[in-house]
Write a structure and sequence with these properties.
alpha+beta; 9 strands; 4-stranded antiparallel beta sheet; about 25% helix
Length: about 130
């Protein structure tokens, strides 16, 4: 299957579980799920970990993402990442001013202390996505 040019699959996994297989440039390569199953306490626990744990990639990295009809735009620390069905393009962001222009022009957000965000993104210690 494909959606907006990005191939993916949903296939049988173990037992009653299904497996989602993401496109080559997706954030998670795959995950398993059941349509009739939800573990709210487990989801809440993972949310809390992602939000607050020292090892969380979201706590230790600058991550901004926006989906457009023809592409997915991201900033990961000091790198701009553009994903299209044809592939990935990554370009280093050269300055705080360039980062601020990306925030406003691509992501439609205003960041009043962009210099502080730039500095912290340069010290990012988390794992790569």
């Amino acid at each position: 299957m494909a959606q907006r040019g990005y191939p993916f699959a949903i296939e049988a996994a173990d037992g009653e579980w299904l497996r989602f297989r993401n496109h080559a440039w997706g954030g998670a390569p795959s995950f398993d799920f059941r349509p009739d199953y939800g573990d709210e306490p487990r989801l809440e626990g993972m949310h809390d970990w992602l939000r607050a744990a020292d090892q969380s990639p979201f706590l230790n990295n600058l991550v901004v993402q926006r989906h457009f009809p023809d592409r997915i735009e991201s900033v990961i620390n000091r790198t701009r990442r553009t994903v299209t069905p044809a592939g990935v393009r990554e370009v280093a962001i050269a300055s705080a001013d360039e980062l601020g222009a990306l925030f406003e022009g691509v992501f439609a957000i205003e960041v009043p202390e962009v210099a502080a965000v730039w500095d912290k993104a340069g010290r990012a210690s988390g794992p790569a996505f």
